[in-house]
Amino acid sequence: MRIAIAGFQHESHSFAPFPADLDAFRAPGGFPPLSRGEVVLAAIVGTRIPIAGAAEHLREAGAEVVPLVYAMAMPSAPLTRDAYETIAGWIVEDAARAGPLDGVYLDLHGAMMAEHVPDGEGELLRRLRDRLGELPIAVSLDLHANVTPAMAELADVLTAYRTYPHVDMKETGARAAALLLRRIAHGRPWARAHRPIDFLVPITAQCTLVSPMRELYGLRERIERETGAIDLSLSLGFPYCDFPGCGPAVTAYAETAEAAEEAAARLASAFVARRSEMRQPILSPEEAVAHCLAHASPEGPPIILADTQDNPGGGGHGDTTGLLRALVEGGVTGAVVGVLNDPEAAQAAHEAGTGATIDLALGGKSDGMPFTARFRVLALASGRFTCEGPMTRGNRADLGPMALLETGGVRIAVASRKMQAYDRAMFRHLGLTPERAPVLALKSSVHFRADFQPIAKEVLIVAAPGPVVAEPASLPFRNLRPGLALRP
Q1: Helix (H) or strand (E) holding 359
Q2: Taking residues 96-118, what's their average pLDDT?
């Protein structure tokens, strides 16, 4: 049995400042770089990404794995036409030239847009169907997928992560591969049901570690078991995609249409019933600073401030300085901010050397609001390290030259490429001990919880300026479907 595998991952923010071009896929920070052909297998080995789980499961099942393409870029504005057409073209053409295949596995996000294609995954599946006909296709999706009718119709099965933070990426890829083999053995498509939800959910309320998502994902498992569904997925949507398919959805697969419809209807109904609980308290930078001054412990454990609106995992550029400014001006001595994306500042620090003092206009490339001050260079590093946390353990990161700077008693971890702060290794790489910081201000919305929540004194969500707005209803949407509410 021969199974082709490919990955094309991007989470697109319609209102983010910079698009994803091909270079964004060539150097994606903490994920494998753009790869094609046999080198895909070497690029993904040892990682916890979905395609790695799929490849392992297929090999263990005795299938021949035929690698096509792996492409991932950090979330940003939608892809350029060139990036989308190049990578999608490689996947389709390489699959068509791969010789006889029994199936295709795809590692997709589910919220990818390009400047000329609003439904990136649906369009890729359409092109594959045009070339491959009825060949079985299984897809693993991110929990934040905007599952469109086209995606549900064109794939034989879609299965999404069950956790946010996404600690089950590799397991989801393995599950998708198992479902693909099961579909091939079945010999015909399963019955399916697709239920879009008619309201957007802020990403800070999508965390599966807290209510109501914790209970809803537990209910998902029970409904799947009780109805005999082959797979039941709840995708919470990425509420920054300005196109008609944006929003949460439930997809179900079963032997009969009745079972699929029952599973999807029960989960969708339960989800809607909990809508009033889908919110998290959010502080201003000033409120967060006042709280830290009153409650932080000098030697830790840290109060964690989630700088949610500049989250690189949601389309932020990782370089806004609103929270940094508030911490310095508020005198929160010992606080650590990171990881701030500023290659020019990192280069200047490396040229000056450890112990030097330099004047910088730090960050602010995305919004024109840098933080200008005199900084001391505390440490320098290559930016190449291996992630150790539960979400991306084994992923090899390359953030380019990194530097640890200090001003006004606040330390700033600076990198040359953006990466969400979801792994303590990013700070250890610069000689920091995150557990002993009084305050950690992390450029992340939820993913940080996987590795940082266990060491936190408490966690606060902070809305400093940035494009990943905590309240998506404030965005100037133009293309959403009629009847979609902008908040729960």
Answers
A1: strand 357-362
A2: 98
Query: pLDDT-based confidence at 262, cuts 50/70/90?
Result: very high
Task: State the Rg of the chain over Cα.
Answer: 22
Nearest residue to 475 via CA among 243, 318, 212: 243
Query: What are 263-275's pLDDT values in tens digits?
Result: 999 999 999 999 9
What phi and psi values does residue 406 have, to the nearest 5 degrees?
A: -140, 135
Q: How many CA within 13 A on the CB side of residue 101?
A: 25
Question: DSSP state, 7?
Answer: E
Q: Are strands 231-235 and 410-415 parallel, antiparallel or unpaired?
A: unpaired
Q: Are 159 and 231 in contact (CB under 8 A)?
A: yes
| Residues 91 and 40 sit within 8 Å (Cβ to Cβ) | no
Mean pLDDT of 309-324: 96
Q: List Cβ neighbours of 398 (8 Å cut-off, separation of 6 or more).
A: 27, 29, 383, 384, 417
On average, the pLDDT of the chain sits at 97
Do 292 and 439 meet the contact criterion of CB atoms below 8 Å apart? Answer: yes
E strand or H helix at 441? strand 439-442
Q: Which 3 state secondary structure label does DSSP give 132?
A: helix
pLDDT tier for residue 29 given thresholds of 50, 70 and 90: confident
- Tell which residue, 138, 140, 210, 190, has the closest CA to residue 168: 140
CA–CA distances in Å: residue 247 to residues 126, 197, 311: 21, 7, 19
AA letter at 446:
V
pLDDT tens digits for 118-162?
Answer: 999 999 999 999 999 999 999 999 999 999 999 999 999 999 999
